[in-house]
Amino acid sequence: MRAFLWAGSLALCLVAGTGSAALAEEPGQTILTLHESAETLISPDVLNVTLRIEAEGADAATPQKALNRAVAAALAKARAVDGVTIATGPYYTSRNEPQAKSSAAPLWRASQTIDLTSRRFDALLALAGELQSDGLAMVGMSYQVSPQARAGVHETLVTEAFSALRQEATLVARATGLSIVGYKTLSLSPTARPPVMMKAARGMAMSAEAIAPQGEAAAQPVRVDVDAEVILELRRAP
């Protein structure tokens, strides 16, 4: 695994509270504030697809019946594919009034989304294509790095970030003629990047002849940020 270390900003001054370093509580001590990061690239191991089903009718019952049948059929197809996790989204029903002075009757609409997740990219893409051919609209598709994959590199990134921070503190201490006493504060912040999203236009469904949606997973960065307040003091004579 290749990791990238990002040098953090540092400053050393003897004016309390006005910079990234300040006098500590103990006489002769100084607080040095440091920030370091370690980052690596991971190939996504999860694909998420969201599809929407819509129906219309002259009364509330008509679109809801049609929607319920379509959702049941879509879920049956999804359950038949191994390795696909299924979750249904919010269910909406609305009455849409015609424009002013129009003689048209009100129109009822019902809609619901289905979220499909899998580590088997090809199988999920093929399923999504089938559901699009059935009239479902693609809302979005995203490649993601799972929590398990992130955990697999977390320890290495933490070790590298803290190692870089210690090296930076040692360099500053040596350059200023001070010695490191310890740490006043330490904080660790794993940074999660948003998944790569591919969105479809509202209502975009595929014809019966259309092929499955295409996707290519790109490596995503996983990063750890470390902040510390390092206590420095004048070197004592031997």
TrEMBL record:
Annotated GO biological process: DNA damage response
Keyword Signal: yes
Extent of the signal sequence: 1-24
One Pfam family hit: SIMPL
InterPro entries found in the cross-reference section: 26kDa_periplasmic_antigen (IPR052022), SIMPL/DUF541 (IPR007497)
Domain of life where this protein originates: Bacteria
Designated name of the protein: Periplasmic/secreted protein
Record's keyword annotation contains Signal: yes
Keyword field: Signal
